[in-house]
Amino acid sequence: MVHAIHQLVASGEVKTGSSAWLETVPIPFLQLATLIDGEWLDRHVLMLAEVGAMATGKGYQVKKTNDEHPLAWPPFLNSNGIEINQEEINSLLQAGRSAFKEVPRKN
Q: Which of 12, 18, 43, 49 has the fewest CB atoms below 10 angstroms from its CB?
């Protein structure tokens, strides 16, 4: 399989890339973000990293769960063990979207 992937890259059909570990993305499945030719592949993953960083800045930490689904959203708990409410999550998501509104998109 690895040999076949290397052949695809050598043929030019597939571009090589690299990745960056984004610890603040709350969904573990998405923490390894892919870059192609130095460009972010998915700006939504960066927005989630921003949301995770903002939640951490407000004193919340991600609690590990037993949910096996790769896209399961984990609970954020404050230092008293109280889970973040949906209104606060929505506020963080809006702030995360706003943070990337000014970033130009490449086509």
A: 12
Separation CA 39–CA 52 (nearest Å): 21
- β-partners of residue 101 are none
Q: Sign (positive/negative) of CA torsion 95, 97, 98, 100? A: positive
Alpha helix stretches (DSSP H) within the chain = 2-11, 43-57, 86-99
Among 101, 84, 87, 88, residue whose Cα is nearest residue 47: 101
CA pair distance 92, 53, nearest whole angstrom = 10
Reported pTM = 0.72
DSSP 81-97: SPBPPHHHHHHHHHHHH
Q: CB of 53 within 8 A of CB of 24?
A: yes
pLDDT band at 71 (very low <50, low <70, confident <90, very high): confident
Q: How many CB atoms lie within 10 A of CB 20?
A: 13
